[in-house]
Amino acid sequence: MSGIGMNANKNDTSRWAATRIAALLTAVLSLSMLSSCSPSHEDRIVVGSKNFTESFILGELIAQQIEARTQLKVERRFYLAGTYICQQAILAGRIDVYPEYTGTALTAVLKQSAASDKAEVYQRVKTEYERRFGLTLGPAFGFNDTFAMEIRGEDARRLNVKTLSQAAQFAPQWRAGFGYEFMERPDGYRGLVATYGLHFAGEPRIMDLGLLARALKDHQVDFAGGNATDGLIPALDLFVLQDDRHYFPPYEAVPIIRKQTVHEHPEVARALDALNGQISDAEMQQMNYAVDAQHRDTADVAREFLRAKKLIP
Amino acid sequence: MHAIDANPVIEFRDVSYRVQGTDVLRGLSLQVAKGETLVLLGRSGSGKTTTLKMVNGLVSPTSGAVLVNGATHTDVDVIRLRRGIGYVIQEVGLFPHFTVSRNIGVVPKIEGWNDARIQARVQELLQLVGLSPEIASRYPHQLSGGQRQRVGVARALAADPAILLMDEPFGALDPLTRDELQREFLSLQRRVNKTVVFVTHDLREALRLGSRIALMEAGKLVTVLSPHEFVKSDDPWASAYVRAFGDGLESAANRGTS
Amino acid sequence: MNVIRFLLQNHTQVLELTMEHLWLVGLSTAFAMLIGIPLGIIIAHRPSWNRPVLASANIIQTIPSLALFGFLLPVPWLGARSDRLAILALTLYALLPIIRNTYAGIRGVDAAVIEAGKGMGLTESQLLFQVELPLAVSVILSGVRIAVVISVGLATIAAAIGAGGLGEFIFRGLAMVDDRVILAGAIPAAILALLADFGVGWLERRLRPR
């Protein structure tokens, strides 16, 4: 008799309130947990890449190769900002495969000291990645994108320097420029100046990798830490100083794949095996140049390469 | 008429209470007999509210003992003690998110009464305190001050406690409503016959409602007298009160019947 | 509009990143509530603890989020996985509003109500669950609402350390210098924050005591 109408449902305020809140929380939590509990992307492969052109191109090559050779749908998660981000993403299962470099894996991820033998580095990284992270190393793509310490071609000829040891005497007259990661990495700046006794004029300028070559050409810097496969090296007449003391470890480009992905989709591993040794240093330089300097579309450049090699129809 | 009861319901034995260096109560000895309405009369700071709160253990004495039905609240589980004592305060303190019915039924509910029994008791009490049954489904903010305090009294009586503690319960009400509630309290007391300890600073109220008046000043018990004795007393404090309150006290002492 | 087309074309990825974002926010808020509400209740009942607890939570809030992520990176187990780290950091940031509002909500309950409740013989837990919490729930929820909105924003920064979520679109878009990608992260994140604000706010209003 009493408590009809709107008062009736307010009678048990505390219990009602508690249930509502509990329901809300459960809904939000289950919704979000459903999403990330062991992401099995069903018939989807997520390909990651770092945030520079070469990684972008390799990512595209991997993606297109998988698309052509398997029935799987490929999702691209490119431009991840660096080694750490990619490592975290693949560990968390947010990406299934991404292109890495053996030298980077050895020193920056595994935190071991650099070695100079290509095969040894590859093997060590492969074993450790399997053991520690459950990640598989695919076969190398074929080029060695080691760090290239560049000077202008005209300076190399004029001063008659070919190696880093020879360049050391001129370093105090030079302003140096490096990418952010190179400055921070254990196999980067610190080791370089220590090994060769380099003392540059002032603090090195830190800039985006993509801008280094041009900065060197424009005399904003005189010594730049770029990469061996940089397309602008031949284009801008830049000279790569020889690493005569073998400071830089090899940086063979390899695909890193989640073990789980290999188990569930062995066809992915097979597709990537077909890329083994297919890309030479010069070919990588050309592709980089096409995208960086000629501003061609990355997907087009990758497709063109794969077709030329008869890897995809 | 200060008879020493063999079995007082409430007893204070030389109770003192000291907090932050101040003596709030000093050497209080007092007995409350079954069925009487003992009024604690005094001005603010006299210690009357503190004394009241010692009965249901909201305050613990620094020295001395407070016995309820022969036991101190350290012997007896204080929660059980409180459930057997009705407590009415000036601000009422109804739970704003409960209906009147649910407010009244708080103690019965936690004592495990079934819903039907609680409902019946709520209706019974509403009638007892002079409220219409449809008030049961209203919320405190929908009631007037007088209605709220009636609910407060109903709530205090819900589990049928033997003791009722009332701390200036009508102090926040307008004079007309106060008068009404005082009269109803008297008729209620005649019907339910609880042991009541009632705190007030209003002599008129004390004379009207109390069977005995315990006058307190600065933490000490000055004197305990019946209403008639009080009005005629020579005690300096008592007579000071009488003077302060002016005329018409005889009629108050006669329960307003003359 | 370009962005809308981009969102539709990449809807699987948008959805995936949104789920990751919700996971980060949902889990951390839940933890913050599990820790913060009881803490708030404790300091409301023991005022002497009030200052150290609120001060600590306040200090955490003043640390810039990216810096906090950085501090925690070298910690073993925690730093090994950036989503764990992000969830811890987000939980810490959510603590202050939740603790402070729980404290305020409980202290805001009318003292007369508490006294009447005690005098009637309600136990401490009966008083807490039947009286204090229901009366404080609206204020507590407003603290949760603030925490959720802050978390949605902070979680976008968590992408910088690789924890995923909608911030990843933003950082990728910045690297690619592509507005659509940036907005593909920023717009859903903003919508999430608004939805949370609105949703919890609605609940708050419904539960406000008369």
Description:
The complex is a heterotrimer of chains A (313), B (258) and C (210). Chain A is α/β, with parallel strands linked by helices. Chain A is built from 15 helices and ten strands. Chain A is globular, with a radius of gyration of 25 Å. Chain A starts with 12 loop residues before the first helix and ends in a 5-residue tail after the last helix. By secondary structure, chain B is α/β, with parallel strands linked by helices. Chain B is built from eleven helices and ten strands. Chain B has helices at 48-55, 78-83, 100-104, 106-110, 115-128, 145-157, 175-192, 203-209, 227-232, 236-245, 249-253; strands spanning 10-19, 22-32, 37-41, 63-68, 71-72, 85-89, 163-167, 195-200, 212-217, 220-225. In chain B, strands 6-7-8-3-9-10 form a six-stranded mixed sheet, with helices on both faces. Chain B starts with 9 loop residues before the first strand and ends in a 5-residue tail after the last helix. The relative contact order of chain B is 0.16. Chain C is mainly alpha-helical and 210 residues long. Helices cover 84% and strands 0% of the residues of chain C. Chain C contains nine helices and no strands. Chains in contact: A-B, A-C, B-C.
